[in-house]
Amino acid sequence: MRPGEASAVDAPVSPVGFTESTHPVRDEPDLLATRHAVRSAAVAAGFDLVGQTMIVTAASELVRNAYIHGGGGTLTISAIGAAHGRRGLRLTVADSGPGIQDVEAALTDGFSTGAGLGHGLGGTRRLVDEFAIDTEAGRGTTVTVVRWVT
Amino acid sequence: MATEDDLKVRDLLVRVLREHDAEILDLWVRAQSERAAVTALGERELRSEAAGVIAALREGLETGLPVGDVVERHAPAREAVVRLSVRRARAGVDPTATALATLALKDTLLDVLREHTDEPGALFSAAITVNRLLDAAGALTFASYVEGREEIIRTQHRQMLELSTPVVRLWRGVLAVPLIGTLDSARTQLVMNGLLEAIQADEAPVAIIDITGVPTVDTVVAHHLLQTVTAVRLMGAECFISGIRPAIAQTITQLGIDLSTITTRATLADALAEAVRLLDADFPDMASERVRSAL
Ligand SMILES: Nc1ncnc2c1ncn2[C@@H]1O[C@H](COP(=O)(O)OP(=O)(O)OP(=O)(O)O)[C@@H](O)[C@H]1O
Ligand SMILES: [Mg+2]
After folding, report:
1. What is the pLDDT of residue B177?
2. How confident is the model at residue B163 (pLDDT cuts 50, 70, 90)?
3. Cβ atoms B58, B17 nearer than 8 A
4. Domain B4-161 CATH superfamily
5. Is residue B200 left, alpha or beta, with left meaning phi > 0 and alpha meaning psi from -120 to 50?
6. In terms of residue numbers, what domain contains A57?
């Protein structure tokens, strides 16, 4: 913050502007960059340390899935809420990979078609408040999650 | 095809390079020190380097190779140019200054030729030949400069990886790896190798991996931690994980990852205390040795 600017604490509580940013997920460095982007958005949205850690970890899982299983894609971070005084972050991770064959199985802990632990998708669902998967064989996968500031 | 004129021009160039090498050397070195920030290299280095390039170019011309190919195909010339460039890359000389080094030789050679040739026709052909010879040198200078910088970046990257995964000896029989940043596959491999080697060299019964500096523990990081612990145990040593902050602990739990088979502690100090307890119980010899060495 530059001197002279009002700090977030001093400023009157005003509706959060609708902010959204999209980040590419093409390679390993992007995985790190997206984690950093979600971390800053979470801090800006007012998440506490536990909330930040959880949403960043959820992003890390989804983005890595899009990179490893989906062949790359994008992450969109949206600051949401304001109307009812509730604030949160929505993450949308989209790829145009092979899609998830069996969503039920994919959400089961320990299920992995690769060499992973198979806890990524199921774990992510537990780390967030809202969770939706839109997937179609051959068309790709979009996972949307929301976590509210507590 | 080398025509008679070509041969004459080449002879002229070779003669000038041989008879006036000291003059060319002086002028070239001066031009370089005037024009570019090559102070990092030092006058003496600059001179011996320049002398090497001039001699190698002359020999290259004498072999009869096509002029445009001398730098590429006469090995000593190629090496001299590459060395000039890589040395500048390593010394942190910027790319423009490095390119100017070969351009300055072109100017110098043309000046000296002009001084020692009366015939305008011969001078013109010689100028073309000099251009052909040194344009190749310019291209090579640039390519090797980039290669030199890339080599430095690769080395630094490797060093950083290694720097960020040091194995430290906390106590007799207790090793620790303070991890900072993330734990991808390449990093895990390095940590594991370093740790296993140190365990063997030190005959250490306990290793502690401290993750205070790891901001995010997702399934991949957890998986890599588990793999490292398993590898350490296979060597007959015990492996603790420390620095698991409350937010990370809650997140790992939500991910459904079971770390219950691993001894975990909130801080490195707690883990060390636990390690010492374990050593005192299981390795009383080591404990008494410790007391002796402390006395
Ligand atoms: N974006 C995606 N596109 C295609 N398949 C996917 C995608 N995301 C998940 N999957 C499938 O769902 C399975 C389970 O995903 P999950 O993230 O739980 O485990 P994982 O990625 O295999 O291992 P990890 O525990 O390291 O995350 C994957 O093995 C993969 O087959
Ligand atoms: Mg996964």
Report:
1. 93
2. low
3. yes
4. Globins (1.10.490.10)
5. alpha
6. 20-148
Higher confidence at residue B40 or residue B100? B100
Could you tell me if residue A111 is inside a domain? yes
CATH code for the domain in which residue A143 is found = 3.30.565.10
Ligand whose nearest atom lies closest to the CA of B222: 1
Chain A: residue whose CA lies nearest to B214:
A53
pLDDT at B37: 57
CB contact under 8 A, B219 and A117: yes
Q: Do B247 and A53 touch (CB under 8 A)?
A: yes
Domain assignment of residue A4, yes or no: no
ipTM summary value: 0.85
Question: pLDDT digits over A1-50, tens only?
Answer: 444 343 444 333 444 445 899 999 998 888 989 999 999 999 999 999 99
Structure-token pair, residue A45: 């949205």
Q: Is the pLDDT score of B96 beyond 70? A: yes
Domain with CATH 1.10.490.10 in chain B: 4-161
- Poorest-pLDDT segment among A52-61, A68-77, B123-132: B123-132
pLDDT at residue A15, rounded to an integer: 46
CB nearest to B216's CB, from A28, A60, A123: A60
Which residues in chain A are closer than 8 Å to B254, comparing Cβ atoms?
54, 123, 126-127
Side chain identity, residue B177: V
pLDDT at B18: 93
Query: Cβ–Cβ of A53/B248 closer than 8 Å?
Result: yes
Phi, psi of B53 (to 5 degrees): -65, -45
In a domain, A80, yes or no: yes
* Domain covering B168-294, topology: Transcription Regulator spoIIAA (3.30.750)
Residues in CB range of B13: below 8 A, 6 or more apart: B61, B109, B113, B126, B129, B130, B133
Task: Tell me the best of A93, A112, A142 to mutate to test the pocket of ligand 1, counting ligand atoms within 8 Å of each CB and taking the most.
Answer: A112
CA distances from A107 to A21, A91, A128, B217, B226 (A): 27, 18, 14, 19, 22
A34 occurs within a structural domain: yes
How many domains does chain A contain in total?
Answer: 1
CB contact under 8 A, A28 and B255: no
The answer for A49, left when phi > 0, alpha when psi is -120 to 50, beta otherwise, is alpha
